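Pipeline run #58 for the internal structure catalog. This entry was flagged by the ingest filter as a single-chain record with no existing model, so it goes straight to prediction. Upstream metadata was stripped on purpose; only the residue string is passed forward. Reviewer on rotation: M.T. Logging verbosity set to normal.
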Amino acid sequence: MIATKLLPWAPVALRLGLAVIFIAHGGQKLFGLWSGPGLQPTIEAFERSLGVPSYLTLIVVGTEFFGGLTLLLGFLTRIAAAGLAADMTAAIIKAHFMNGFFLNWSITPGRGHGIEFNLALLAMTLSLLLSGPGKLALDRLLGLEPE
């Protein structure tokens, strides 16, 4: 009985945790916050090291930062989750797959992180895509999700 009452709160925990992560990573890329590179260096790095054109980098950065904000508010949650899932899928394929599974904990020069972290974020975004925002979400207040 108690578990049934708590179930609608599970997506809230996912939503808020993901929001913080994506706002932080997007903020680094977009505004140079938290010792991040900022937009122009991010565009240059993605183009140089990954072959990603600038317009796609803008989409990635915008998806991470603004998708994180929408998750925080629980607004258009499923759409944001779908965009962030696509972002993490592309990151796994384009930037991390060649480095294996695990994070580069020893910070070995010339070796990036594996897919481990991005795979966890992908699973969480897919969970929100399937479940919706849970409690305390603008989607529910606006009637975009059922109670």
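catalog note: The chain has a mean pLDDT of 96.
catalog note: The radius of gyration is 16 Å.
status: ready for reviewer M.T.
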